[in-house]
Structure formats: structure tokens, C-alpha cells
Sequence to fold (127 residues):
Amino acid sequence: MTEEPLTEDLNLQAPDKDARMWAMFTHLGAFACFTAIPFANILVPLVIWLMKREESPFIDAHGKESLNFQISAFIYAILPMLLSLILIGIPFLLALVVFWFAVVIIAALKANNGEPYRYPLCIRFIK
Fold:
């Protein structure tokens, strides 16, 4: 299955500094999961994307990508969390957390540099 590159979504426009900053925040908003708010890693990027998506196709594309990955990561974490009850899922859950942390940082840096980014292993729910 081939997917369209993110640059097609951006109409090859160079994003301004404000658009790059908000696109970066859609990715970094995922770290809100470290608060006591349930599903904050999905809610914060969703709120930012809904508020800013009309301002720039760059923010819109990165917001969709961030949301899609956060939803995908949540789905991928369900089985290891269940298996952690019998200790089998703990290594898988740890590996998923390390992978999640790394790709969110990479995506935020790419957004801040004005570059497109596609998360690996991401299910595209929002197109």
C-alpha cells in the first residue's frame, strides 16, 4: 500500500515561523500524557489542531499526523498493557514507550524546521 507524501498536503509552501511553532506544538502536546488528565496525549494535539488547522496547511498536515500517531500508539499499547498483568508485556510496553518518545521528538524537530514528517507504523484515521 503506497501512501501520498506529506508534501502534497502542504502545497509545497514554505511555512512561516508561527505555523512551524504550532505544528511543533501539535507533536509536543502528546507529552501532556504525563499529567493526570486521561487521554491528554490525544486531547492536546486535537485541541491545537482544531484551533489552528484553518490558518495553515502545514499546521493541518502535522496536526493530522500527530493525532493519527497518538491514536495508533494507544491502540498498539492495549495488548502489552494487558499482558503486563502477567509480566510478559512489560518489555514490549517499554520498547513502545521508547519508540513513541523518540518519534514524537523527531516529528517536533521536523515541524520546527518546516519539514514534512510521516510517523512510522501510523494508521491514518484522519486524512
Summary: The chain has a mean pLDDT of 89. Residues 57-84 form the longest helix (28 residues). Residues 10-112 form one domain.
